[in-house]
Specification:
Elements lengths: L2 E6 L4 E3 L3 E9 L12 E16 L13 H9 L11 E5 L3 E9 L4 E9 L8 E2 L3 E12 L5 E11 L23 H25 L4 E7 L2 E8 L3 E3 L3 E7 L7 E14 L12 E11 L5 E7 L8 E2 L3 E14 L7 E3 L8 E3 L5 E13 L3 H5 L7 E5 L1
Length: 387
């Protein structure tokens, strides 16, 4: 028996283009006092990153020729097929890397290997929607002699920030002394620079503030105004907005604001023409606001949510969905005077004619620092298997 432990040291969330590093440890759990006859042998171990794509048959019509093209190629090249038994299609994979061949472990002995691979920068982000799913996994395969292959799958999350693909790092290595022993160090340096660049780009994009004022009105007149200071956010931020009903001609009885994502299939892949868009609500604020001059809301964008993106099959957009309930009468008629004495009490009317209308405001949601997103990730940094 051999225990295989895979650990992602920095956490299970990465930016596309970063280097994923995983330490894989093989251990013989028997006591060191056992005889040498209890030694364990492994023929080989290999690791590979792949992205699985799965689509809902009721919503997405995929070309039948796409089938399992990647699986056939992998079976022709090697017996190690990381996506074997997985749902959907393997749309992206890195070259497999051999960790070792012919490993012998004595009782109580363990060996560790470091697997490093750059995540493709042009791949899709991790996403679990109502129509499609993009799932990333690191699969480690190992085999005893004359035994079936065992697979250890390590799921992780990938965030995509547009703009990193076209950035060229300064070629400062040409003037530096050449040292072949520093290859790994230079790779980590470039990886850290990419993370710093992403953080800088996100800070610039989401820190710009400018006043956006919108008039809220229906067919009968003005209800109020809405104010928001920016429309570009990172996941983990709060969307804050304010209402001013004091200048409205139509009394607003109630309003609600929902933070939603809009998942739409590209027209050529739709199962039915004119197929409706799928909406998901991530946060909601509702408030009764009769005789309220000003009000506000704060909706958090979950760190576990997916930033907006577009692929050849699906696109995901974010929006604020507003719903307003207004009175057909003036504000003074919404209350009834209950007493003529010195202590005057007012009570609400029993029935009231109302109008309802909605409004959508598109916003842009970008990724955040992957280390921050790792704190709330549903994936574990450590995965293990016994073979």
């Amino acid at each position: 028996m051999i225990e295989v432990l895979a650990k992602l040291g920095r956490g299970p969330v990465f930016l596309a283009g970063e280097v994923l590093e995983c330490v894989i440890t093989f251990t013989n759990p028997l006591s060191a006092s056992s005889t040498s006859a209890s030694s364990e042998m492994l023929a080989w171990a290999s690791a590979q990153i792949h992205c699985q794509f799965h689509a809902s048959e009721n919503r997405v019509a995929l070309p039948p020729s796409d089938g399992s093209k990647h699986d056939v190629q992998a079976e022709n090249e090697t017996v190690f097929v990381p996506n074997r038994g997985e749902r959907g299609q393997c749309i992206l994979s890195t070259p497999p890397k051999i960790l070792f061949c012919d490993l012998r472990l004595d009782p109580g002995e363990s060996k560790s290997y470091s697997y490093c691979e750059t995540l493709p920068i042009d791949g899709p982000p991790s996403f679990r929607g109502q129509s499609v799913k993009y799932v990333y996994k690191l699969t480690i395969g190992c085999q005893r002699v004359n035994s079936p292959i065992k697979l250890l799958r390590v799921p992780f999350r990938v965030l995509v920030l547009h703009g990193l693909k076209d950035y060229q790092f300064p070629q400062d290595e040409a003037v530096a002394p050449s040292n072949p022993f520093l290859e790994a160090e230079e790779g980590l340096k470039k990886d850290s620079r990419l993370a710093d660049l992403a953080t800088e780009l996100l800070m610039v994009a989401t820190s710009r503030r400018s006043l956006h004022l919108y008039n809220i009105s229906n067919t009968r007149g003005k209800v109020g105004t809405f104010c928001i200071f920016k429309t570009v956010y990172k996941i983990g931020e709060d969307v804050i907005g304010t209402f001013n009903f004091s200048e409205g001609d139509i009394p607003c009885l109630q309003f609600s604001v929902s933070l939603q994502t809009e998942e739409s299939i590209q027209e050529e892949f739709q199962r039915r023409r004119g197929q409706p868009v799928s909406f998901s609500t991530h946060a909601r604020h509702q408030e009764a606001c009769l005789h309220t001059a000003q009000s506000s809301f704060s909706l958090p964008i979950p760190l576990s949510s997916t930033p907006g993106f577009t692929t050849n099959i699906v696109s995901l957009k974010w929006r604020l969905h507003f719903e307003f309930v207004t009175s057909s009468e003036s504000a003074g008629n919404c209350l009834v005077r209950g007493s003529q004495s010195e202590a005057i009490t007012w009570s609400g009317v029993e029935q009231m004619e109302v109008d309802t209308f909605s409004w959508d405001l598109p916003i842009k949601v970008l990724p955040t620092n992957p280390i921050l997103a790792s704190y709330v990730s549903q994936f574990s940094s450590t995965n293990s298997i016994t073979i």
